[in-house]
Write a structure and sequence with these properties.
Length: about 220
């Protein structure tokens, strides 16, 4: 009997403790974030929900081959479309379309500078061929040839630097006179003209709109 009484008392105490725990649990302390009530979905499940319903698996081997062939054709069509877009963008950029030019080449100032540079023949156009000549001269075992080649290249570099300074000042003055409302920085315009002039004419981007000797107004 005592054993039964004790178990009954213990059960009564445990029920009271559970009720008090429930009552305390109802009071949510400040700063406590309640649970969502459901497990966090896995990454694969979340991606599946974003992508939409998944197609049912193929029932036959022929159907699987048909799907694979269709996916391959879709990828080829997408790759061909992207290739056409790149070609079109390249062509428009070479033609001077402002929408496809790089930020450094946009604007009326840069367009006018390009026309001024492209309308003249200068020593700066020999900059890249001169670098090739210097490299070849260093490979020649004759010290005399290396000495004369180095001296000639040094004189050419000095002449190119002088021409670049004079050409930059001339172009900056012409741009200020042509576009008085535009903000023209002498060093920026001169450097842009220098980089344009040192490039081979066939490699200039965008392509020259004028020929050497044409008057640019």
């Amino acid at each position: 009997m005592r054993f039964l009484r004790r178990s009954a008392a213990d059960s009564t105490d445990s029920d009271q403790m559970e009720e008090s725990a429930v009552a305390v649990g109802d009071e949510v302390p400040k700063g406590h974030t309640p649970g969502k009530g459901r497990p966090t979905p896995k990454r694969r499940e979340a991606e599946g929900r974003k992508r939409g319903p998944v197609a049912p698996p193929p029932k036959t081997t022929r159907e699987a081959m048909r799907r694979a062939r269709g996916n391959k054709e879709d990828r080829k069509a997408l790759a061909a479309k992207r290739r056409e877009q790149r070609v079109e963008s390249r062509q428009r950029m070479m033609s001077g379309d402002e929408r496809y030019l790089m930020p450094r080449d946009r604007g009326p100032v840069k367009a006018y500078v390009r026309d001024l540079v492209d309308s003249k023949r200068n020593l700066l156009g020999l900059f890249m061929p001169l670098a090739v000549v210097v490299f070849v001269a260093l490979l020649v075992p004759s010290p005399v040839i290396q000495q004369y080649a180095t001296l000639a290249c040094l004189l050419m570099l000095i002449a190119m630097v002088l021409e670049a300074i004079l050409n930059g000042r001339r172009i900056a003055g012409l741009v200020r006179a042509k576009l008085p409302k535009e903000t023209v920085r002498g060093f920026s315009v001169g450097w842009y003209a220098f980089v344009r002039a040192t490039q081979l004419r066939k490699l200039r981007v965008p392509k020259p709109r004028v020929s050497p000797g044409d008057a640019v107004t």
